[in-house]
Amino acid sequence: MSGLTGVWDQLVDAVCRPPRDDSYTDEDLVGGQRASFRLGKARYYRQDLELHNERGERLLCSHFRPCIVASKDGRLPVVVYCHCNSGSRRDAEEIIYHFLPRHVTVFSLDFSGSGRSQGEWVTLGAREVDDVATAVRYLRDEGSALTIGLWGRSMGSVASMLYARADPSIAGLVLDSPFARLRDLMLELGSSDDSLRMPRAIAKVALAVLKRSVRRRAGFSIDDVAPVEAVPAVQCPALFGHGAEDTFVSAEHSRRLVRAYGGEARLRLFDGDHNSVRPDDFYEEAVGFMLSALRVEELLGFDLAADEEDDALAAALALSMQEHRAGRDAGALPLSEEAELALAVELSLQTSLLEEAAVRAVVGSGEGAAGSPPPPPKQEHVEDGPGSAGPQQAS
Questions:
Q1: What is the CATH number of the domain that holds 367?
Q2: pLDDT greater than 70 at residue 135
Q3: Residue 356: CB partners within 8 Å, gap ≥ 6?
Q4: What residues does the AB hydrolase-1 domain cover (predicted)?
């Protein structure tokens, strides 16, 4: 039995202490060291800040925002990006370029135990849900969020569902490759992995060893991580996405969650596995779904149809970031600076007219010129970035 225990201890390490993305610097985040960047003629900045969860652990966060806020009251919809168990806040790269030109800000965080935040263990949603609560509370207290949606990847999807059960004001969820119940996932991995080759009956015995090891090391019970038991109480609309060839978390997990979901929910299957680059048409559907859930057109009065001309180029830049991340995780060479610059220039050329038209529409409405920025965050939230002059309000 000692050999079996050793195998499952390795599984605990793989799930609760996967490789940690903690070696990145501010230069690796969108906006670089200056924390500012352009898309067309529109300028954006990255507000870096620190929050503390209810356990007192420091969480490193970034809020990607426009320098000029094209809304009358200075508020915009926001999407909170929740990363996977081996990820970090920089994984929000996959959605930043889709949402910012559409007047939606993106907030990302390193969960406790992940990235450069404090904490030792990843808990697959058991404690990450508290970090989501910390981020949402900050956004509401800070006052710039009009509506809030959650976009999660794998573990981040689970944390999003667990949080949405307790907060009916969340506008919508995009849930990429979630599992339905952690205990079931562990049994599946123990029964199907060729390196373990255990009959299901033996896997159940080994699961008891796994549960004790998880509780001893990470301090939580895998039985407590069961989003399929939480989603009947969730009423906001949700779009589930899952790779049809995912052999780590099978698509059946998403099917179970959709069947149990309390509100409107649908499943979008796409080609690929658990970690593959997501196809353009998935992003097109998911972004459109989230824009509708956030009520962007209704609340801001913008016609987003014109922005659809930018889809292909925004997708190209987001794809380059995904491929960069995939290469980084696989130990491959990163995307060259020349390639990133070429994509950024192409996107800028195509979006400049659209952004200029949006600014003219706001300024020409007769409401006045740029106003004062919203109040600064409370003192416990530390801002970085010399290029971050803060937002201005175009009323």
A1: 3.40.50.1820
A2: yes
A3: 40, 41
A4: 77-190
Q: For 338-379, what is each residue's pLDDT tens digit?
A: 334 433 443 343 344 334 444 444 344 443 333 333 333 333
| Parallel/antiparallel/unpaired status of strands 58-66 and 42-52 | antiparallel
50 bridge partner residues? 60
Closest C-alpha among 62, 19, 12, 5 to residue 37 = 62
Judged by DSSP in three states, 44 sits in: strand
Cβ–Cβ under 8 Å, residues 77 and 296? yes
Within 10 A of 197 (CB to CB), how many other CB atoms are there? Answer: 10
Domain with 282, as residue range(s), is 2-394
* Residue from 286, 258, 285, 281 nearest 271 by CA: 281
Torsion angles phi and psi, residue 355, rounded to 5 = -65, -40
Measure CA 122 to chain center.
16
CA distance linking residue 394 with residue 372, whole number of Å: 9
Q: Is the dihedral of CA 280, 253, 262, 81 positive or negative?
A: negative
Task: Please tell me whether the overall predicted TM-score, pTM, comes out greater than 0.70 for this model.
Answer: yes
Give the total number of structural domains in the chain.
Answer: 1
Quickly count: other Cβ atoms within 10 Å of residue 182's Cβ. Answer: 24
Our CA dihedral for 88, 92, 94, 95, rounded to 10 degrees, sits at 160
Nearest to 110 by CA among 24, 45, 227, 37: 24
Residue 282: exposure state from Cβ atoms within 10 A (0-12, 13-18, ≥19) = buried
Cβ atoms 94, 326 nearer than 8 A: no
